[in-house]
Structure prediction request, 207 residues.
Amino acid sequence: MDTNKYLNDISEIKNMMNRSSRFISLSGLSGILAGIYALIGAYFAYQTIYFDQSNLGSYKTLVISEDAVIKLLIIAATVLILSVLTGIVLTVRKANKHGEKIWDKSTQRLIINFLIPLTTGGVLILYLIEKEQFSLIAPLTLIFYGLAIINASTYTIGDVRYLGVTLLVLAFISLWFIGYGLLFWALGFGFCHIFYGAMMYFKYERK
Prediction:
């Protein structure tokens, strides 16, 4: 009896330490919705790119007008804002449901480690857009986003790391298929988010 009690106490202490060092209130449902937003955004991006009157040549020599670039940035910003707002709302709701703090040191570490690679990639991509070098934008967005997820996964649910690794694999494959970036965006930001979001939801949230 004493041995079992001792083991239970150790287990409880371990769980408490894990909760204090990791942000575990991430919502899998927010990942699913983010993936849906991304697929909708990819559809509108496709309409913008391939029905732009200034498009010339094959997919490898595609010319995109300045208006089309602005529309694409608006679409990307809309998807990002919707995803972030949805993530915040659902994560706060999950944290309140389980009586957990939404803002503590683990949350701060998570955000900082997520933003470092993401901000670095964002600056590089904005530079490429300014120079009208569009061919590597799709692979680079997947690479830096995947690195951001892997970097932040230390401070949250470990399964998130696999999403980051999957995005990196897609990014490397897309390097050999320049011109099909929109397809890899849809696969990475759309279907991968939906798949891993659903996996996290059924594994950690649905009981």
